[in-house]
């Protein structure tokens, strides 16, 4: 992602791409969360069991529990991430090479930005990390609510299997949302909405690592104008592969974050200490594989989601450039 379009344009295109990808892959996201928080559902087989169980018991609607808050978190997170990333990257590029990135004034089509500066590895990772921290600080409350909504049926099913008395029927979506928000607040106050944020901060390495790998993909496999402005299909492949590698590297953190955010615990223990406990328990239960429970379905979901995000983002930016050139040419001819 080295477009020199204005940050607000990149933020809009990134948020639109991520929202589209999220809507398409959300059932996979729900299944992933259920697998990550379950002590019995493991690997691809466990994911299939979870999918079939939810579909059979709750219907198609059950596969979209929490999608409203999740799309909200996705739009917020990605809008601020792409805005902060592009703003800081362009700022750093201008300081390192003044004049390389021209200002995009509508007075002439010649002012359309066409070049970017390749940053060093530490610079790329630092910019991505800082952008990730800022975006996740804003979107974490919605992510916590989503995780609780996604695992609510799992706890309900466990209670139903252990009790002979009938379980109360499910409340409406708005009522369940209000109950989850109230429950989180009662457990730990406002701090509860940022539960697991320390682990989330570390996971800000995920998007920075993803985009760093994406830059490598562009430098190694794309040539000419495609390297500067990849075609949507090229953006899909590069982003999907990059995200899959990043997820595999950081997966134990992803597992800890999901379990922390889905937890009903009222403990004030720090997220880092809680994450250590989660890793110890996971290792004792399943050995090294326990630390990677649900990795397969997470990679599939991330592959599709990141690929669609970048493909849609690239298409929107291409349309934006074409519109900009058309308006600029019209202004010059007039």
UniProtKB/TrEMBL annotation:
Example of a GO MF term: ADP transmembrane transporter activity
Main location: membrane
Pfam families from the UniProt entry: Mito_carr (PF00153)
Keywords: Membrane, Repeat, Transmembrane, Transmembrane helix, Transport
Disordered: annotated segments: 151-171
Bilayer-spanning residue ranges: 67-86, 192-214, 234-255
Gene Ontology CC annotation, any one: membrane
PROSITE patterns: SOLCAR
Family statement drawn from the similarity comment of this UniProt entry: Belongs to the mitochondrial carrier (TC 2.A.29) family.
Name of the protein in question: Mitochondrial carrier
Organism: Neolentinus lepideus HHB14362 ss-1
Taxonomic classification: Eukaryota, Fungi, Dikarya, Basidiomycota, Agaricomycotina
């Amino acid at each position: 992602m080295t477009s020199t379009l204005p940050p607000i344009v990149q933020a809009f295109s990134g948020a639109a791409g991520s929202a589209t990808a999220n809507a398409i892959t959300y059932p996979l996201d729900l299944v992933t969360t259920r697998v990550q928080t379950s002590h019995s559902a493991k690997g691809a087989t466990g994911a299939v069991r979870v999918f079939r169980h939810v579909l059979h018991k709750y219907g198609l609607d059950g596969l979209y529990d929490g999608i409203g808050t999740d799309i909200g978190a996705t739009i917020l997170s990605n809008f601020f991430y792409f805005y902060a990333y592009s703003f800081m990257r362009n700022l750093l590029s201008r300081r390192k090479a003044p004049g390389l990135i021209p200002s995009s004034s509508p007075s002439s089509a010649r002012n359309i930005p066409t070049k970017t500066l390749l940053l060093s590895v530490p610079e790329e990772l630092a910019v991505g990390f800082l952008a990730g921290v800022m975006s996740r600080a804003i979107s974490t409350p919605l992510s916590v609510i989503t995780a609780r909504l996604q695992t609510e049926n799992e706890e309900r099913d466990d209670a139903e299997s252990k009790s002979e008395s009938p379980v109360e029927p499910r409340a409406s979506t708005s009522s369940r949302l209000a109950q989850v928000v109230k429950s989180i607040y009662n457990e730990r106050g406002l701090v509860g909405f940022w539960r697991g944020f320390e682990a989330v901060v570390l996971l800000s390495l995920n998007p920075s690592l993803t985009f760093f790998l994406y830059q490598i993909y562009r430098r190694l496999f794309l040539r000419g104008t495609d390297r500067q402005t990849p075609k949507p299909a090229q953006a899909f492949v590069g982003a999907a592969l990059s995200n899959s590698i990043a997820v595999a590297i950081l997966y134990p953190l992803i597992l800890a974050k999901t379990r922390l955010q889905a937890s009903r615990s009222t403990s004030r223990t720090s997220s880092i200490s809680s994450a250590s406990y989660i890793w110890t328990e996971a290792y004792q239960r399943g050995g090294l594989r326990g630390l990677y429970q649900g990795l397969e379905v997470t990679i599939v979901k991330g592959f599709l989601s990141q690929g669609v995000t970048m493909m849609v983002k690239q298409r929107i930016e291409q349309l934006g450039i074409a519109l900009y050139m058309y308006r600029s040419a019209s202004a010059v001819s007039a």
